[in-house]
From TrEMBL, chain A:
Organism listed in the record: Ambrosiozyma monospora (Yeast)
Keywords: Ion transport, Iron, Iron transport, Membrane, Transmembrane, Transmembrane helix, Transport
Keyword Nuclease part of the UniProt annotation: no
Molecular function terms, GO-annotated: ferrous iron transmembrane transporter activity
Topology term for the membrane: Multi-pass membrane protein
Protein name from the UniProt record: Unnamed protein product
Automatic annotation (TrEMBL), chain B:
Residue ranges with Basic and acidic residues bias: 612-626
Compositionally biased residues, Acidic residues: 602-611
Domain Plastocyanin-like: 28-143, 152-299, 360-501
Listed transmembrane segments: 557-580
Protein name stated in the entry: Unnamed protein product
Entry GO CC: high-affinity iron permease complex
Any one GO molecular-function label of the UniProt entry: ferroxidase activity
Classification of source organism: Eukaryota, Fungi, Dikarya, Ascomycota, Saccharomycotina
Similarity field: Belongs to the multicopper oxidase family.
Cross-referenced InterPro entries: Cu-oxidase-like_N, Cu-oxidase_2nd, Cu-oxidase_C, Cu-oxidase_fam, Cu_oxidase_CS, Cu_oxidase_Cu_BS, Cupredoxin, CuRO_2_Fet3-like
Record's bilayer topology term: Single-pass membrane protein
Example GO BP: reductive iron assimilation
UniProt entry keywords in alphabetical sequence: Cell membrane, Copper, Glycoprotein, Ion transport, Iron, Iron transport, Membrane, Metal-binding, Oxidoreductase, Repeat, Signal, Transmembrane, Transmembrane helix, Transport
Length: 387, 642
């Protein structure tokens, strides 16, 4: 099973797809709400833009992903040579960091929806340009916002998936293990996303997101532990001259001084089935102090971070520091220096209003334009008739 | 006068040529460069190297006073292949037949070679020490003359050579960072203690070459360009002539061969030694796999290049050598000892070697001292310790050792105090998934040779087996062990306590023997644990390391439980967090969200102002103004509604 279906990859692709689907769904809903009835023609155009954007994004990231993985397999093996464990460890840690950072934010699907509404509004607020400006990039971006947004979204989610997949599965697995979980993840993500968004209530969506996030974090904790384990194995292999791993899971394949438990079976790297266990729960047949401690520390860290966020959400600041907020801990917050640029409700409402009117105005303009064009065409047609 | 001369003549005749050879040796360190590559400390004898050859006649007595001037190491000497009949105390095995001699002390070996002739050697039996140079050849001439004609006799030693000393090598070998028990890789092969040596020969002559592998690890292939070996003796046993192009010699094995030189003196020939690369864990790129020495007919002629045999050349299989004095296959054994060779790791992560799960661990009291002090209990093998793999053999019983090699390497096994009959040796089972022990490969119909080969060191093939037989007619404490020193250090040995009553009856330990133990502070009475009260109580005996912990121990379970709890609590937190209602979410999103939205609103105003100030602003102006009006209008609307 491990040969053709890498479980982590399925989950990551599934998850990223789900996010992309939700974004696209939010867009569709917004457009429908705003102009669906009033301007069917523009609505159609925008719909087309959204779909083309979404699929183009998916397509491009698939291409990039394939190229990335292909290059990885054809070049990678030689580059890494003896320090394969080191690289596996590094990739595990990178993937852990990515999942950790993305995961919590994604839990707040409500936030995400609101966020997207604002983004859309903002992009639509830009005015149509004069004729001679029509081919300027800035203008094009604005005009085709509903193409660009889903395109960028799917591309971003897709590239994230590529990086995750790379981090998770790239080493120790054969290239054969990629296509199937990727396809399954895509299908499952689209199906669930569609069903959840249109069919289910917000609560069931939330529960579902919680479950998938929990699984994602189980994977991340396992990855973190595994990354540390790989570093230790790398050290051990360096000291043993790199021939310990050839022993499989038997005596001598691990460092007894660092061993917490060791069973001569169930090796996730060689024994079928256990790799799934390893992928989802971070199972190791040869656990070390490093791998066990890192697993627990990771969860501890995560729990603390979530607790802090929840505290801040309730009280408006971090515990014991009245003037400190979570995002102030992020260095980027200070670099960007946008502490006081917050929209109040009225402004926000104004923004939406503006976007909506903008959109409607565009629709009108478009209709006018078309009417004018039609008129011109009539004239053109009429001219030969006069002769 | 006449009488006395008469008497002395009689005396001379009766003792035949019995002579006593005295040696006074001091073992010490000197820096030497044997292979022409690296100088390193080497154990020398009286400041010289190589160690002198002992050359005696059958029946002679050898007396060696050995002074240990090594400073940091104990020492001992074992005379390899010598039966030491009724003088087992001279066999030189630490903690079995004697105590080691500590630095600054001397010990005298004194023994007679009763009925043996041929090529032997001597070496330290202390912890791989002889690989640092403490070894020499021991030739016993036949008073009846060599059974084959030759013109000249030459002794040739071969061995591997390390650039590092045995002690540091052992530290990294018996180390948890060497979990596969990979033996240190030697740097070079020595040929008479040098590299690229020369052997000047005369044309059309027959040479008797006594080839002795005095190494501690690798077996070697030997061949000479355009010359053949006629094997005439192995391990001190004459055999019927056997011609071969190539020899395979494990450590401690000896081959006497006749080489007939060519008539033509114009060319010199390559005398080649090849590593048995299968024994090396890895083959370093810069390893000279085949060492070239020179058989020189004409010193002015060019020296030959490396000469390789064609692929598929087969070396002599010593199993088929027929002793010149045939000895009928011994009858069915009274005592069968079946041992399985296993290499495995113990609880400290170090790779050890085992005979039946026991890794030889030296007793606290030399086994021979236990024999003498135990009285009637000496007959019970329990007293020799549970971790020494000691087996008591009864007088004159026929013993068969069935050795199954569960390891994938070749191992040369050596039995002290005997030559044994080679009853059977299984083929290589290298490609089989697991070892093929004796009796499982469908060779029930196997018929042993009527007159089997006899020797004292025999290799077993990978994952295969051998059967050897001997008669327990030499009372003594005899070691049976792998002669690869690394494996002996790993504990690949058993002890045969042969006819303990016979030892008590016919042998003694002299004062010097006891003094030697006193110098080491070693007890000379009691069982393996040093218990003199109850010989069956082995409490406190030396034992091997504990087994590796199996699977989940207490700490493993604790770790597992903690990890599970952490995971579960983590997931619960995620749910709690994910499902939690957040107050004024929209506000928060806007906080999180880019203030660019606000900027945008402001920007418009700024643009507006800019536009007014700069009349040359581009045509966006018009649109912006229009836009502004509408947006301001709508925000005004908004405000009004509130």
């Amino acid at each position: 099973m491990a040969d053709v279906f890498i479980v982590q990859i399925f989950f990551i692709v599934f998850r990223e797809t789900l996010e992309a689907v939700i974004v696209v769904a939010v867009l569709l809903a917004f457009v429908k709400q705003s102009i669906g009835k009033n301007h069917p023609k523009l609505y159609k155009t925008l719909l087309k833009q959204i779909w083309i954007g979404a699929f183009l994004g998916v397509f491009i990231c698939l291409v990039i992903g394939c190229a990335f993985i292909g290059a990885f397999y054809s070049l990678g093996k030689n580059i890494w040579g003896k320090s394969e464990e080191l690289w596996e460890g590094i990739f595990c840690i990178i993937a852990t960091v990515l999942i950790t950072v993305m995961g919590i934010a994604m839990l707040r699907i409500n936030k995400m929806q609101a966020k997207w509404r604002v983004k859309i509004a903002r992009s639509l607020i830009q005015p149509p340009a004069t004729r001679r400006e029509r081919f300027k990039i800035g203008y094009l971006l604005k005009k085709y916002a509903l193409f660009v947004l889903p395109f960028v979204t799917t591309l971003r989610e897709g590239l994230e998936a590529v990086v995750f997949v790379g981090g998770v599965g790239i080493t120790g697995h054969s290239a054969r293990g990629f296509p199937l979980p990727v396809v399954c993840g895509l299908i499952a993500g689209i199906a669930v996303g569609t069903f959840m968004y249109y069919g289910g209530s917000a609560v069931s969506l939330q529960i579902f997101l919680c479950i998938s996030t929990a699984i994602l974090y189980l994977i991340a904790a396992g990855l973190f532990s595994r990354g540390i384990w790989f570093f230790e194995t790398n050290t051990f292999n360096k000291k043993t001259g790199g021939d310990a791993s050839e022993n499989g899971s038997g005596p001598g394949s691990y460092d007894i001084s660092k061993s917490v438990w060791h069973v001569n079976c169930c090796n996730p790297e060689t024994d079928n089935g256990w790799d799934v266990f390893n992928a989802l729960l971070g199972w190791q047949n040869s656990a070390t102090y490093g791998s066990v401690i890192s697993y627990n520390v990771y969860w501890l860290f995560l729990i603390i971070v979530m607790a802090l966020i929840m505290f801040e959400e309730k009280k408006g600041h971090l515990p014991f520091c009245k003037n400190l907020k979570m995002r102030q801990l992020n260095p980027m917050y200070h670099i960007k220096g946008k502490k006081n640029n917050e929209l109040n409700e009225a402004e926000q409402a104004a923004l939406f209003k503006k976007a909506e009117s903008n959109l409607n105005r565009r629709a009108e303009e478009m209709e006018k334009e078309e009417a004018a064009q039609q008129a011109t065409q009539h004239e053109m047609n009429a001219i030969p008739a006069q002769h | 006068m006449k009488l006395s001369s008469c008497l002395s003549a009689v005396f001379m005749a009766s003792v035949a040529l019995a002579e006593t050879h005295y040696y006074n040796w001091t073992a010490a360190w000197s820096n030497l460069n044997l292979d022409g590559v690296k100088e390193r400390p080497v154990i020398t004898c009286n400041g010289e190297f190589p160690w002198p050859e002992i050359r005696i006649k059958r029946g002679d007595r050898v007396v060696i006073q050995l002074h240990n001037d090594l400073g940091d190491q104990n020492t001992s000497i074992h005379f390899h292949g010598i039966f030491q009949h009724n003088q087992t105390s001279q066999d030189g095995v630490p903690m079995l037949t004697q105590c080691e001699t500590p630095p600054g002390y001397s010990y005298t070996y004194n023994f007679t070679v009763e009925d043996q002739v041929g090529s032997f050697w001597y070496h330290s039996h202390s912890k791989g020490q002889y690989m640092d140079g403490m070894r020499g050849t021991f030739i016993i001439e036949d008073p009846d003359g060599y059974p084959y004609d030759y013109d000249e006799e030459v002794t040739l030693t071969i061995s591997e050579w390390y650039h590092e000393l045995v002690t540091p090598l052992t530290q990294s070998f018996l180390n948890r960072y060497n979990p596969t028990g990979a033996e240190p890789i030697p740097q070079n092969l020595l040929w008479n203690n040098t590299m690229n040596g020369t052997w000047t020969v005369e044309p059309d002559k027959t040479y008797l070459l006594r080839i002795i592998n005095i190494g501690g690890f690798v077996s070697q292939y030997l061949w000479i360009q355009d010359h053949e070996f006629e094997v005439v003796a192995v391990d001190g046993v004459y055999v019927e002539k056997n011609v071969t192009e190539e020899l395979y010699i494990t450590v401690a094995q000896r081959y006497d061969v006749l080489i007939h030189t060519k008539n033509d003196t114009s060319t010199n020939y390559a005398f080649m030694q090849g590593f048995d690369l299968d024994m090396l864990d890895t083959t370093p790129k810069d390893l000279i796999q085949n060492a070239t020495s020179y058989m020189v007919y004409d010193e002015n002629a060019d020296m030959p290049d490396e000469y390789l045999l064609e692929d598929g050349t087969e070396y002599l299989d010593d199993f088929y050598l027929v002793p010149l004095t045939p000895e009928k296959l011994l009858p069915e054994p009274d005592h069968v000892i079946t041992v399985d060779v296993v290499m495995d790791n113990l609880g400290n992560g170090i790779n050890y070697a085992f005979f039946n799960r026991t890794s030889y661990t030296a007793p606290k009291v030399p086994a021979l001292a236990s024999v003498f002090s135990a009285g009637d209990a000496a007959d019970n093998q329990t007293i020799y310790g549970s971790n020494t793999d000691s087996i008591v053999l009864q007088k004159d019983e026929i013993v068969e050792i069935v050795l199954n090699n569960n390891d994938t390497g070749k191992h040369p096994f050596h039995l002290h105090g005997h030559v044994f009959q080679v009853v059977e040796r299984g083929p290589t089972y290298f490609d089989e998934p697991g070892p093929v022990p004796y009796g499982t490969d469908g060779s029930e119909d196997y018929v042993a040779p009527d007159y089997p080969a006899r020797r004292d060191t025999l290799y077993v093939r990978p994952q295969s087996y051998f059967r050897i037989r001997f008669k327990a007619d030499n009372p003594g404490v005899w070691f049976f062990h792998c002669h690869i020193e690394w494996h002996l250090l790993q504990g690949l040995a058993i002890v045969l306590i042969e006819d303990p009553k016979g030892i008590q009856e016919f042998q003694t330990l002299d004062d010097a023997w006891y003094e030697n133990c006193d110098a080491m502070g070693i007890q000379t009475e009691g069982n393996a644990a040093g218990n003199t009260e109850d010989y069956y109580d082995l409490k406190g005996e030396n034992v091997q390391e504990k087994e590796l912990p199996a699977g989940f121990t207490a700490r493993g379970i604790v770790a597992m439980v903690f990890s599970c709890i952490a995971g579960v609590i983590g997931c619960i937190t995620i749910f709690f967090y994910g499902m939690a209602d957040i107050p004024n979410i929209e506000q928060r999103v806007m906080d999180d969200l880019h203030m660019e939205s606000k900027d945008l609103l402001n920007d418009d105003d700024e643009d507006d102002e800019l536009d007014r100030m700069d009349p040359a602003a581009d045509s966006d102006k018009v649109d912006n103004v229009k836009e502004n009006t509408s947006s301001q209008g709508s925000s005004n609307d908004q405000k009004l509604r509130h």
